[in-house]
Amino acid sequence: MAKPVINSPNANSIELYWEADNIYAMVTRLKEHGDGRITAEVALKVNKPDIPAFILRNQINLLSARSQKEIAKEAERVYYLSDGQWEGMIKQLCEASLENYRRGVPVKEIWPFGANDKIPPAEFLISPLLYKDKPTILFGEQGTTKSYLALTLALVAQLPYYDNPLWLAPKQANALYLDYEGDELEFKRRLTLLTRGFGLPQTPIIYRECHLPLIDDINYLEQTIVEYRIGFIIIDSLGVAVGKSSLNDPVTATAFFADLRRLKVTSLIITHLAKDKLTKYTSPFGSVYFGNLARSVFEVKKQQEENKGEIATSLIHKKNNQGPLLSPQGFKLVFEEDKTLVKRIDPSTVPEFLEGQSLKFQIAELLKKGSLPVKDLAENLGKSEDTIRKTLKRNESHFVQLNDGWGLVF
């Protein structure tokens, strides 16, 4: 029997094509059970006149000879081949699927870069916020425009640089928005307002209203990513995406990121805020493993005046496994009746955003306008002169003493 042409987009799906018989098979949703069974969904198609396009679509136990024979008999009832041919093809299908599932990522021998080689920096999808093919968490209180910012980044990822009004340098990538909280109409409304605000023609974003936890939907998502050539996904939001599992359980976090890793795309995960009542330290809600396993973590803070359709936001970089922490990144969203405008701003121009920043950062913001003596710095920041002196001395790589006070090192 002729061997099929095999294509395996990922470890949990495989495509087979028997050219002589013009038969195509797709095996998806592989799952290993506690009792040793490995099941999958198999679809068989043939491209011939007067024959249904789908010969069958059914579940199969890849390790069961009985299950293989039942699938072969069902296929033969719809489309007859020579005696025993279907059984042989189904056996090939099962063996190829199991080999692909168990092989995973092969071991590689990795050598350091040469002495004269330049070590490449971490690659961005959207610089400097999203690392390519890595997970980033965006967390904050309710109403801090997290979903709006995420959708804005989805649009930026799909635009060429010269159309980008936010001065974020993107690499083009199709985006997939996984909505676990809202609905299609709400998403369409926001998308319309943003595209009008950017002055864009109608620009689609691949969207899915999600009802299953990520872990139960992972096989479909893998297929979607291949089909639509997705390079960037947004998960809105984490608490619902993990289903009934507890966000405080480390196992929930490790399982979530293990599944996310299978998708091999850049991901932005929206979640809510946890605050330590004693230290006022803020972090993503749930187990510390969520923050630990993300490569980059931003907290979103907002400033909004009453009865004014504007929200200023500041992205505070809390963690970065790929490089140094960024200075706060500022945006302003202006909500008009028929459009939403998104602009870059300097967050240091919003007094509320300076609160909670490190004293080093606050001193640096003041010194951007020119040198100041310790006394003036202390008065402006509400700190003792001794505290200011200690901070300046600890950070002499950033600050320099001058005749009339202290200034910034350039």
How would you portray this structure in words?
It is built from twelve helices and 21 strands. 32% of the residues lie in helices and 30% in strands. The protein starts with a strand and ends with a strand. The strands form five sheets. A nine-stranded mixed sheet has the order 11-10-12-13-8-16-17-18-19. It has a five-stranded antiparallel sheet with strand order 1-2-3-4-5, sandwiched between helices. Strands 7-6-9 form a three-stranded antiparallel sheet, covered by helices on one side. It has 410 residues and is α+β, with helices and mostly antiparallel strands. Helix 3 packs across helix 4. It folds into three domains: 99 residues, Double Stranded RNA Binding Domain, CATH 3.30.160; 231 residues, Rossmann fold, CATH 3.40.50; 50 residues, Orthogonal Bundle (Arc Repressor Mutant, subunit A), CATH 1.10.10. The model has no long low-confidence stretch (mean pLDDT 90). The radius of gyration is 27 Å and the shape is elongated.
- Helix tally equals 12
Distance from first to last alpha carbon: 73 Å
Provide the CATH architecture of the largest domain.
3-Layer(aba) Sandwich
Shape: elongated
The largest sheet, given as strand count, sense and whether it forms a barrel, is: 9 strands, mixed
Enumerate the spans where pLDDT stays under 50 for 5 or more consecutive residues.
none
CATH topology of the largest domain: Rossmann fold
- Rg of Cα set: 27 Å
**Using DSSP, what is the number of strands?**
21
Question: Any idea what the CATH superfamily of the largest domain is called?
Answer: P-loop containing nucleotide triphosphate hydrolases
Structural class based on helices, strands and sheet pairing: alpha+beta
Query: Helix proportion of residues, in percent?
Result: 25-40%
